[in-house]
């Protein structure tokens, strides 16, 4: 089969590799679409990432059709449309037993320890099949839309940690794919006013289209006074950092109201550190939370939200490329030209 093989920083090669043969508890999936994640981009550019091997096949945001099943697999059949939650928890560690399987001490994932889906086919390993990581797709969503369930599940986990309530004012820093999903989730959760700050004009226009009450260009407008104006000088209830720029961490502390919540959703580049006026956290009783990956149940809910039209998945996928145009696909994904870029094998 054809696969994009990651052979080192900036080396993504289209190769002919052996078609995986599913073991007795495994499933072979014909990939219909695999989206490029910000993490794939960072890996491609050389960021050392736990679990990523060289050479290996990346890609963890995907959906497809069952091509073959192992003899022990009863729940899935050839031709079934499936999506896969790529993070495979161990089910037995402290975190798995306490509702935090997304930060499982022994977690593995497709596109990391296991071969991913930037390929014609992907083999779903036994721990994922037996562990309930594979989902039948609702009939009214396309395979491409289903590929968005993984990043959406991570955003849902961020909301789980931040708890947007009816009437909240929410500020989202960054209107990339993650910021746009947080926007749609915040609106669905009952936020009364969502402000998105984003320097790119095209992305601001999309945020407006997706329901942002106010889009702000941080290069020419004063986000702080805009937030204070709509909150009677108090500040926002919740801030989502949807872009990993260290200076924004301190900005967030001045945008949030006393007792409010900041979610450090985006990861920073390894080694990046933010200087924080920690007295703001202390005196203002600010809650700070992070988000890492997603639980299997977040994935199930994400599929459901897409199926019910709460998140405009098809509008989020703006570019599509075949495997042999991967270079162009990664270039577009790394620019601000589109939102989500799909590889269609
Ligand atoms: Zn991802
Ligand atoms: Zn575990």
UniProtKB/TrEMBL annotation:
It is an enzyme of class 1 (oxidoreductase). Its cofactor is Zn(2+). Residues 8-343 form the Enoyl reductase (ER) domain. Keywords: Metal-binding, Oxidoreductase, Zinc. The keyword Ribosomal protein does not apply. Its EC number is 1.1.1.301. Belongs to the zinc-containing alcohol dehydrogenase family. This is D-arabitol-phosphate dehydrogenase. The lineage of its organism: Bacteria, Bacillati, Bacillota, Clostridia, Neomoorellales.
